[in-house]
UniProtKB/TrEMBL annotation:
Region Disordered, annotated ranges: 83-105
UniProt entry keywords in alphabetical sequence: Membrane, Transmembrane, Transmembrane helix
Domain of life: Bacteria
Protein name listed in UniProt: DUF4235 domain-containing protein
Sequence ranges of Basic and acidic residues compositional bias: 88-99
Length: 105
């Protein structure tokens, strides 16, 4: 089980880094096309306009986070098809209907 966990850790890390890298390049290109200038290298720099910094942080953080999540989900799907089970850290915790707490009406 420990070797499977190590394989999953490496596999999910590679997927997440790859997705983040591709999304970052896409965002940089899109930002330059939309604004005519490079995205802020450091949004915390006081010389960067506050609204530009906020917009860059919001857009880049959201889209990179979504890309990482989708890549990790795809990697988990591939891992599950290959091994017959989900990775240990992705097994369902109380998500099944039979494990849901009983509600009283």
């Amino acid at each position: 089980m420990a070797s499977g966990s190590k394989v999953w850790s490496a596999f999910s890390l590679a997927a997440a880094i790859g997705a983040a890298t591709v999304m970052k390049k896409t965002l940089n290109t899109s930002w330059k096309a939309a604004t005519g200038k490079n995205p802020p290298a450091n949004p915390a720099d006081p010389d960067v306009d506050i609204w530009e910094a906020v917009m860059w942080a919001t857009v880049s953080g959201s889209l990179i986070g979504i890309a990482r999540m989708l890549a990790t989900r795809r990697a988990a799907h591939y891992y599950a098809r290959s091994t017959g089970h989900l990775p240990p850290d992705l097994r369902k915790d109380g998500q099944d209907a039979d494990k849901a707490p009983a509600t009283t009406s």
